[in-house]
Write a structure and sequence with these properties.
This protein is of the alpha/beta class. It is built from twelve helices and twelve strands.
């Protein structure tokens, strides 16, 4: 999930259907000139209108959507979904992707939400193994690249894709040519990474190095991290500290010119400058990107299956897909979705990406983090 999502997400209910009740018909028992009858008629109309308003409110279907803290779509886009479906959407922000998944697993059998968004490929295998999702073959899957469709059972459907990568401060000139060059003494005391035990981009970068320098190769990821430690790599506890405090290319003007961040951090610098920048002060280093795919799924046991399907279709539909880039600073999953100019100019898709099978990540994640901790921090 991308930390550049800075807009607060408000969930509003803006639907109130009012029906006006007609006055009672005139009969010989209800003379038109009778003042008490007119008052009764007015009271009845008011009562009928109030009942109608209450009934309209009661007819709204509430859909609970469990998401990570960086989830954001435009307020008017969400309100349109609510209006189109006579629904109220409760967005339940619940921490990072791991925390969201844990909450869903702990409430298995009595789900606290109808839909979950935010599980990524680093937790995909664990999510599927928990048996908490219902399959749904959304029509939009036909327009999503096969490489993003990691779940053949269609319990978790890809919504967006991002890339954790090394950003560099353009003032350094030419950046390192590849990952291995980061261990060259020329780049001593230049690199900032995040702790993979406490940071999503930190974990993604560790996985990128494991994919690039696998066990059994002439130069393994363990040797790479040993060399980075010798080269005085700086470990931050989280992305915010790494980017805004330690990195020289951000507004914090820290001391180091290389940082593990996102492929879309350069365009975010321009976008959030509110016109002060026409070019980002940062760029992406080639050959360092790990691909993160985020998914949506219908939680098993939902009492609102039909509306949940509509919400999944909504997330994969053209309006949300076009909205996603400037809301969460990730790429839409649906092929040929138009990208904003700032993405086209400053965040082209990486030429090379690293990935690992979801099952391999699930099996080895804890052991890899423990070994990284031993090498780098102890």
């Amino acid at each position: 999930m991308n930390k550049f999502s800075r807009k607060s997400f408000l969930v509003l209910m803006g639907i109130a259907l009012a029906a006006c009740a007609a006055p009672p018909p005139r009969t010989s028992q209800t003379p038109a000139a009778s003042a008490p009858a007119s008052a009764a008629s007015s009271d009845n109309a008011s009562s009928s209108q109030a009942s109608s308003n209450q009934a309209s409110s009661d007819q709204l279907t509430t859909l609970n959507v469990l998401v990570h803290d960086s989830f954001s779509i435009s307020e008017d886009v969400l309100k349109q979904f609510e209006a189109d479906n006579n629904a109220k959407v409760n967005v339940l922000k619940s921490g990072d992707a791991a925390s969201v998944l844990n909450k869903a697993i702990l409430s298995k059998g009595a789900p606290i939400a109808d839909v979950l968004y935010g599980v990524d490929n680093t937790f995909l295998s664990r999510a599927l193994g928990a048996n908490i999702f219902e399959p749904y073959a959304a029509p939009a899957l036909a327009n999503i690249a096969d490489r993003l469709k990691l779940d053949a059972s269609n319990q978790l459907l890809p919504v967006n894709v991002g890339h954790v990568a090394i950003n560099y401060d353009k003032t350094v000139g030419t950046p390192p040519a590849d990952l291995r060059e980061l261990a060259d003494p020329k780049w001593r005391s230049k690199l900032i990474v995040e702790n993979p035990a406490t940071s999503s981009p930190g974990l993604a970068f560790l996985l990128a190095t494991i994919a690039a320098f696998p066990e059994g190769s002439d130069y393994t990821w363990k040797q790479f991290w040993t060399d980075l430690r010798t080269n005085d790599v700086f470990v931050s506890p989280d992305w915010s500290d790494a980017y805004y405090t330690q990195f020289s290319g951000s507004s914090g003007k820290g001391p180091r010119p290389l940082v593990v961040s996102y492929q879309t951090s350069p365009p975010a610098e321009v976008f959030y400058s509110e016109g002060k920048l026409t070019e980002p002060p940062t760029a992406n280093m080639d050959g360092t990107a790990f691909e993160q795919i985020e998914f949506v799924g219908i939680l098993k046991g939902t009492k609102n299956r039909a509306l949940a399907e509509k919400f999944v279709d909504f997330m994969l539909g053209p309006v949300v897909q076009k909205d996603i880039p400037l809301q969460m600073f990730v790429y839409p999953a649906v092929t040929d979705t138009p990208l904003p100019d700032v993405f086209v100019q400053f965040a082209p898709a990486p030429k090379q990406v690293f990935t690992l099978p979801a099952e391999q990540i699930n099996t080895n994640r804890d052991a890899w983090i423990e070994e990284w901790t031993r090498i780098v921090l102890r």
